[in-house]
């Protein structure tokens, strides 16, 4: 398996962070897995406004349960750069079948209604644009970057 791609932020998340609707420090977050046929890698607000707009989540089966994996974000600042990271690497263990996915999406979780939940960012699980499969007894782990999921920086000088 090749390394995971970069996390990319959805346009709706940028807007909601800027307007205070999404609070990376206090809101609840979850992470879902999606198939290669999903539109999860489409970032535009015109297409993706909430989790109900993202197609083809991996089915509840073989050790994966839709919408059930919590995500804990941590925020740190150093030398003017704010880093947002997930504190653990989410893991699913395949049982009695394989778990196959292409994308992972971290999202603000409000409740079990997809239209009430807002996607934050998406990552390809394999930079070669291939599916990742965990076979029975093995794990599918989303290994977070050592440099964080997202960073916020700005100009330090004129």
Characterize the structure shown.
With 158 residues, this protein is mainly beta. The protein has one domain. The protein has one helix at residues 11-18, and strands at residues 8-9, 28-34, 69-71, 73-78, 81-86, 91-93, 99-101, 103-109, 118-124, 132-134, 139-141, 150-152. The protein is globular. The mean pLDDT is 92.
Descriptive tags:
single chain, 5-stranded antiparallel beta sheet, 5% helix, 158 residues, 3-stranded antiparallel beta sheet, globular, mainly beta
Write the layout of secondary structure elements.
Layout: E1 8-9, H1 11-18, E2 28-34, E3 69-71, E4 73-78, E5 81-86, E6 91-93, E7 99-101, E8 103-109, E9 118-124, E10 132-134, E11 139-141, E12 150-152
One letter per element, helices H and strands E, the order comes to: EHEEEEEEEEEEE
Number of distinct helices: 1
Q: Biggest β-sheet, characterized?
A: 5 strands, antiparallel
The shape is globular
Question: How many β-strand runs?
Answer: 12
**Uncertain regions: pLDDT < 50 for 5+ in a row?**
none
Structural domains: how many: 1
Helical content, roughly? under 10%
Structural class call reads mainly beta
Radius of gyration equals 16 Å
- Portion in beta strands: 25-35%
Strands across the major sheet, in which order? 1-9-8-2-3
Report the end-to-end length measured between terminal Cα atoms: 43 Å
Mean pLDDT across residues = 92
């Amino acid at each position: 398996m090749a390394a995971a791609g970069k996390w990319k932020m959805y346009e709706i998340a940028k807007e909601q962070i800027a307007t205070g609707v999404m609070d990376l420090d206090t809101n609840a977050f979850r992470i879902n897995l999606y198939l290669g046929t999903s539109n999860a890698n489409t970032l535009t607000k015109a297409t993706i406004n909430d989790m109900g707009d993202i197609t083809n989540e991996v089915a509840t089966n073989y050790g994966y349960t839709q919408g059930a994996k919590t995500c804990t974000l941590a925020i740190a600042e150093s030398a003017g750069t704010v880093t947002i990271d997930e504190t653990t690497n989410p893991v699913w263990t395949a049982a009695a079948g394989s778990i196959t996915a292409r994308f992972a999406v971290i999202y603000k979780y409000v409740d079990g209604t997809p239209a009430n939940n807002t996607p934050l960012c998406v990552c390809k699980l394999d930079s070669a644009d291939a599916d990742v499969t965990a076979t029975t007894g093995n794990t599918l782990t989303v290994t977070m970057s050592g440099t964080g999921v997202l960073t916020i920086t700005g100009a330090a000088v004129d």
